[in-house]
Structures
1.
Amino acid sequence: MLTSEQIERKLDKILLKVQKPGRYVGGELNSIVKDWDKVSARVAFVFPDIYDIGVSNVGLKILYDQVNQREDALAERAYAPWLDMEALMREHGIPLYTLESKRPLACFDLIGITLPYETLYTNALNVLDLAGIPVRSIDRDETHPVIIAGGHSTMNPEPMHAFIDAFVIGEGEEVIHDIINLVQKFKGLRVETFEPANLPTFKREDLLQELAKIPGVYVPRFYKTSYMDDGTIAAIEPTIPDIPKVITKRIVPVLPPPPTRFIVPNIDVVHNRVSVEIMRGCTRGCRFCHAGMITRPVRERSVEEVLQAAEEAIRHSGFEDLAFLSLSSSDYTDILELVTKAAERFAGKHLNIGLPSLRIESVSIDLMEKLRENGRASGFTLAPEAATERMRRIINKFIPDEDIINTTREIYRRGWTTIKLYFMIGHPSETLEDVQAIADLCKRVIAEGRKVIGMKAKLNAGVSTFVPKSQTPFQWVSCDTPEQIKAKQALLRRELGRDRNIKLSLTSAEDSYLEAWLSRGDRRMAEVVYSAWKGGSKFDAWEEGKKYDAWMKAFEEHGLDPLFYTHRQRRTDEVFPWEHITAAVRKNFLFQDFRQSLEGQIRVDCRLNCFACGILPTFAGLRRENPGDVWKCPDVKSPARTAISEQLPVVGD
Amino acid sequence: MMRIRITFSKQGALRYTGHLDLHRLWERAARRAELPLAYSQGFHPQPKLNIAAALPLGFSSRCEMLDMRLEHDIALDGLRDRLQETLPIGIQVSSIEVVDERAPALQTQVAAAEYEVTLTEAIDGSDLKRRIDSVMESASLLRERRGKQYDLRPLIEGLDILPDGKIFMRLTAREGATGRPEEVLDVLSIAFEGTRIERSRLIFQS
Ligand code: SF4
C-alpha cells in the first residue's frame, strides 16, 4: 500500500492538471489530524459526491466530531474525486486517500459512507473501487476495512445490500460509538500491517455478526429475501439467531450540542456557511415528504443553545453565512425570539443569516425582514408544492391560494424583487388541470408583484417531479409515466415560458426515474446498480457523469423491468423490500394516512393532535426518561412495559 | 481608519488556493480574530483587502503581502499570535506593521519578484548552466502567450543556479510586464511538472 509521502509526491505531479486542485489537498482550518499510532480505531468518513458539496454536510461533521472527541479513535474525510481527477488518479495508480493524513482509505478500520440521496449509489461503488477495496461485501476479508453506510436513503438499504457490510438506520450520534467499540474489541489482536505473514486473528464474519446485534444496525448478509412469482417479496427473514427481525432506527432522545468547528475550505464551495440545526423532525405530516416521516419525533434546541453555538461557530470559522437548519423553520417554537436575538447579536458583522422552509404567512416576512437588516437581501423562497385544493388535500399541505397571493404581494411590497416558489408535479392522481393551476397561480403571483413594483418583479418557479419514497404514506403509489411527465412539463413551458419575468426550472424525467427505481428498489436492484456503474454511470446527479443508457442496459442484462419499480401501484398487502427496516412510524399508520389522502382528508399538525404514528410506543422508554418540552410528542405516562412487540402490524384492506 | 500590512508565507495545501479564494480566506481570518475589517459601501459591501501580487496556483511563497484596512485603530502587540491562531497551517504570518493610510495601493508598488525553483526530477547540471548562460546572453526571447507575442528577455532581471542546486530567478512584476517562471523554465527546456516553485521575495519600488 502506498504511504502518505508517496501519495503526496504523486499528487504534486498531477494536481495542476485538474480543475480546482484545492479539493484534493485538505489543510483546512478545523480539520483534525491526529497521531495515527496513538489510537486504536481509525475511521474514514466518505461523502461520495464532490468536495464542493460534501465538505459542508452537517451530518458527516457531527460524526467527524463524535469520533475525534474520543482519545482512542480518529476520523478523517474523503470525497469523490471529479472525473478529471479520477482519470489521473487511476492513470498514476493513486488510490483514494483521506485529506487529513493522505493515507489510502484501505488502511482504515472502518469506512463510513453517507448516502443522503440515491444518485450517490454508483459513486459509492466507485469510491470503494478507487480505494482498491473490493466493491462487494462478500469479496472482502479480514484485511479490508468494515464498510458502513447511513443517511436518509438507507431507510431502504436493499439496492445497496451487496456492497455495504452494515447500515446504520436512523441517527448516528450514539451508534457510531457502539460500532467503534466493537471494532476495537475485535481489532485488539489485529495486526498492524496487512502482510500475509501476519494473519489477523479474528473472523470478519464474527465481527459482522456482533455488529448485527447492535440496535439500529442492519447487516444485510444475515437476512434472506424470498420472492413471489410476480417478483414481489414473500418474506424477509434473519438467517442467524439473536438478531432482530425488524431493525428499528436509532434516535438520540435529546439533540447533543451542535458542531461549532466547521471545516473551513480554502477554496470556494457550494455552501460557505455555518449551519446550526435548530430542530430535528417535523410534525406537519406532508405525505410526500420522506424526511418528515423518517426523522420523527420533533426535538428542538433552545434559543440560547442555538445562538451560543452559532456565535462560537462563526468565531471559529469566520464564515460569512449562517443558516438555521430544520425541516420547517416556522414551526420552531421560539422562532421569533431566535430571529430577533440573532439579528441583534450579529448586527454589523457582515453576516448573511438564512432561514429555510418558512411557512406561507406574513409572519415569515417579518422574520426575513429582521434578518435582512443585518446582511444582504437574500431571495425569498416558499414551497406551496401544489396549486389546487384537491391536490393540497391529497398531499396534506393545505395552503389556500389567497394566503399565497397575499403573502407574495407583501413580500414584493417590502422590497424583495425575486420570489422563488417550489412546486411538485406527479403527485398521486394529479391531472393536467392541477398542473394548469400551478401555471395560473404563478401568473397571478407575478401579476400582483407587477402591481406593486412593476416590471422589477421576478418569479422563479422550481417544479420538480414527485418520487414516491419508502416509509411514507405514498410508498404504495405509482409514478407518473414518461408521457404524463412530458405532457405536464410541456404545459408549464407553454404557459410560463413566455413571461420574461418568470423563470421556470424543471427536473429531467430521467433523473426522477433513477431516483424512483432506487428509492423503492429491492435486493435485485443491487445487480442493476453494479452493472450501471460497470457500464460507466457515476455522478448520477450530474450531466457529465450519468449514463442513462448504462442503466437501461443493466436492467436488461438482469432481466428486470424498470416499470416494475416505478409504474406499479403496490398491493395493499404487499411486503415491501424495506419491510424489515422501520423509522418507527408504523406501516398501518402510513396506510391509514394513504387512505385518508385518497379521500382528500387533511391531517393537522400532530403537535396539536397526536395521531399515534408509532414513535411513542417504540421509544416509550426514551420519552419517559425525557419528559416535557424536549419532544413535541405527548408525554408517556404509562409505566414501563417489559417488551415491545417486534411484530409488524398487518395491513388489511 | 488604520491600515496594516501583513507579510506571510503560503505553503503546503494552501499552494492550491487561488487569488480570489485567498481574499476570502483573509476576510474570514479577520472575522475569526475579531479585527474590525473595513468594508466598502453599497449593496454588496466588499472587505478592504489588497494583496500585493497574485501568486500562480501551485506555487508556494515565503513573502506574500497584504494590506488590510480597519475601521478603527487597534493595538499591534499580540496581534500576530492572535491572527496566527485563526489561520490554516499553510499560512504563517511573519510580520504585521502599520502603514500610512495615504500610501499608494500595495499592488501598484511591486516591481519584481524572486523565485526559487527546486528540481524534483534529475537533469544534467552542467548543461543547465550552459542553457542559463545562453538565456542571459541573448538579446531577446520572443514567445507567444495566449495568442500574443512578447519578449521574455527584458523581464528576466536575474537567472542563476544557487549553491543548493535550486534555480534562482528574478523577474519583473509590473502591471503589464510580468515575467512568469514557467515561461523561463520552458526556455530552459525544464518540464514544469518536474519542479517546485517558491516565491522568495517581492521587490518594491523605492
Ligand atoms: S407520536 Fe404523535 S405527536 Fe409524535 S410524531 Fe407521532 S403522531 Fe406526531
2.
Amino acid sequence: MIKTDTLIIGAGPVGLFCVHQLGIIGLTCEVVDNLDKIGGQCIELYPDKPIYDIPAIPECTGEELTNNLLEQIKTFKTNFHLNERVEEIKQDEKKWLIKTNKGTQFETSSIIIAAGVGSFEPRKFSTKEIEKYEGKKILYSVKDKKIFKDKTVTIFGGGDSALDWAIELSNTSKVILVHRRDDFRGMQASIDKVNQLKEEGKIEIYTKYQLDSVEGDNKIESINIKHDDESIKEIKTDYVLGFFGLIMKLGPIAEWGLNLDKKTIPVNTENFETNKKGIFAIGDICSYPGKLKLILSGFHEGALAARGCFKYAKPDEKYRFEFTTSSKIVKSRLGIKE
Amino acid sequence: MPKITYLENNGNSKTIDVSNGLTVMEGAVQNDIQGIDADCGGGMACATCHVYVNEEWFDKLPKKEDGEEDMLDMAFEPKKNSRLSCQLIVSDELDGLIVSIPSKQG
Ligand SMILES: Cc1cc2nc3c(=O)[nH]c(=O)nc-3n(C[C@H](O)[C@H](O)[C@H](O)COP(=O)(O)OP(=O)(O)OC[C@H]3O[C@@H](n4cnc5c(N)ncnc54)[C@H](O)[C@@H]3O)c2cc1C
Ligand code: FES
C-alpha cells in the first residue's frame, strides 16, 4: 500500500502541471497512467504537431510541451505508474483506497482525476463474435513475438505498427498484410520495404479488403476477408494482428459513483471538486459552464484543485497563498538554493 | 439556415438547422444527436465523428484533406462513403445533406 497525499489519475499535460502545483504547496502525489508513456493526448495523438496557444510559449510541439512539463516537475521526483489503469476507488473513513488493474494500491486523502477523455485502448475489429479469439489468436499488440515463429500471421492495418510488424515477422513467419485501401500511411521507407518483400515473395498483400468473419472453434481455422466489391476471400491463418490505433474509453471512471454528463464529470469552479468530497476533476474530463477543452484551462483548474486538496491532506494547517518568486518555503520545495 | 439530416443508429431521423460555418459534427453534438462522440473535439485525431454520407451527396462534398483518409483507417467499419463529420463545414451548398451514423464509434 503506497501512502501519499494525493493520487493523480492521468499523466497528460494537465495532470503533469498539477504535480507542480501540489509540490509547491507542500503536498506529495503519485501519478497513474494507462499508457506506456507520459504526456496524454499530446504524446499519443500529436507529438510532432505544433501548439500555438500555451501562454508565453509562442510555439512548441506536443512532445516538447511534455518534456518541458517534466523538466518543471523534476525536482519533486514524482513516481509515475505507467501501463496501469485505475480500476477501483473506495472510501474508508477519511481516506480513499485506490486499486489499479495491476494490483497496485494507494491510500490518499484526495484524488485528482485528470483522465482526459478516458484511457487509451487499442481499437478492435468490428466483426461479430470476435471476443472468443481475442487475447489468444487475435491480438492488438505483440508481447512475445516468438509465438509466431513458423506460423501464418495475418496483419490488418495501414500505419507504421502494421508495416513494422509485417517486416519484422516476415523473417520467421508467413505474413499476410491486409488493408482497407491501396495507400498505406506509414513512413515511406517502411512502405518501400514492404513492397520489396512482396516482390521477393516474403509478404502477401491484399488491399481494399477488410475482415469479414472468422472460422474455427477456439483456434482460428481460417478467416474471410471482404473486398470493396463485396467479393470474399478465404485465408488460412494461425494468428490475426490488428493495428488500428488507439481509442479513448471512459472505462472504470463511470463506475465510481460520480455524476456524469455525457463523458465528462461536472465540477464546481471554485476548486474543481466533484459530487464526492475529496475527488477532484480537471482538464478535458471536467465540465462546467463555459468549459474550454484547452491545455491552458487545465493548468488553471489544476492550480485550484491542488489548493482544494490541501485541507484533506493537512486538516490542522491553514493554506497560505504565496508567490514562487518571493516565498522561501516554496523555493526550498522547488529545490532552489540562494 | 442549412438543414442537415442525421440518421441515428437506432433508426431515428433528425433534421436540424445548422448555422453556416459550424461542422456537421458540431451540429450533432450541440443537438444531442446520438452516436457522434467526437472525442478529440474536431482535431481529426480520433475518428469517433465518423459518418456515412448519403450516396447522392458524396461527390458533391469538398474533397477529403490529407489526413482524413488516414484517420478513417481507424474508424469503426469504414466504407467508401465514409467521412469524418468534423471535417464537413456547413454552408448553403450542404443544405439537405443526409448522413447516417455507424452502429458504433469504436
Ligand atoms: C490533434 C489535437 C490537437 C490539439 N491542439 C491543441 C492546442 O493547440 N491547444 C490546446 O490547448 N489544446 C489542444 N488539444 C487539446 C489538448 O491536447 C487536450 O486539451 C489536453 O491533452 C487535455 O489534457 P488532459 O491532461 O486533461 O488529458 P489527456 O491529455 O487526455 O490525458 C489523460 C490521460 O489519462 C489517462 N487515463 C484515463 N483514464 C485512466 C485510468 N482510469 N487510469 C489510468 N490512466 C487513465 C489516459 O491514458 C491519458 O494519458 C489538441 C488535441 C488534439 C487531439
Ligand atoms: S472529432 Fe475527432 S476526428 Fe472528428
